[in-house]
Hints:
Layout: E1 2-5, H1 11-19, E2 23-26, H2 34-40, E3 45-48, H3 56-61, E4 67-70, H4 77-85, E5 89-92, H5 94-113, H6 116-126, H7 131-137, E6 148-152, H8 156-167, E7 171-175, E8 181-187, E9 193-199, H9 203-209, E10 212-215, H10 227-232, E11 238-241, H11 250-258, E12 264-267, H12 278-281, E13 286-288, H13 297-310
Parallel strand pairs: 1-2, 1-3, 3-4, 4-5, 6-7, 6-10, 10-11, 11-12, 12-13
Antiparallel strand pairs: 8-9
Helix pairs in contact: 5-8, 5-13
Amino acid sequence: MKILVHEALPEFVEKTLEDQGFEIIQVKVAQEQLANYINTHKIDVLLLHKARKITRLLVDSCSDLKCIVIASSHIDLEYIDYAIKNNIKVLWAEKTLANATAEMVFAHLFTGSRLLQEANRNMPLEGEVNFKSLQSAYSSGVELAGKTLGIMGMNLAGQLVAQKAIGLGMQVVYCDGMQPHISKDVSLFNGASMHIHLESQSMENVLEQSHFLTVHTKNFERYILAKEEFESAIQLIGVINCAYPEAINEVDLVDLINEEKILFAGLDRFEEEPNPAIQVLMQPAISLSPNINGTSLEVSGAIWLEICELFAECG
């Protein structure tokens, strides 16, 4: 099988794939010429890395392409779903990215619940002269322990979010029709283990019980959380999106914050990415990060190890 790559592969990756019988073709093809090159040279597998992305035009134009492998930490579920629906297998290092994403969820949860996103903006400006005033302003945060975390969808990152939440003393509820239950033993650092068993609930039940909501669906779905869902979440304190653009209706979210119906939001993905709406960026109650949920020093090396394993599924 022929693999088309745009950038040079790490040496060990190239050797591993050649040993598996793949023919590697490294050619820098302009995006507008990519489909024509794939069809002309009968490429079986397209490896996407760095700046290259799946597009609808590419999928529509390459009906004979068998597989797309994404060697990147930036995953776009909308276009992945589109490719899969057009009978193209799409693989990415989901296991490698899951823990980095789960930890980013908690980075935003801890930041927002203790109002650090606002304190970090104002301390450099006013901390020297208004320390006591800022202390008073940012002393009304909440603790995560004892609260309920609602997980919308239960992919691998969602499972790790659940595990970490339970370890912090949170109650976890989730809804995912494709994952009716989670039952697993989690190994701890000292050799002990912790058993986790969770049953999927209706979205209505999850919304009613949750103090915090985070999205971790396996597939793209526009506006999982919007005005109707927010109105049903009567105990809601904070909302996190480290999943994909359009998982949350940001207009409804900003309205919710402006009306002081929730304390904060944490956003790593944005509806208008890569040009997030100014009203989102300037809302002080929103903790912000630029689509780095799956990016860390640990991920950068491990991602290629998982990619080598995944190529065996392209045959």
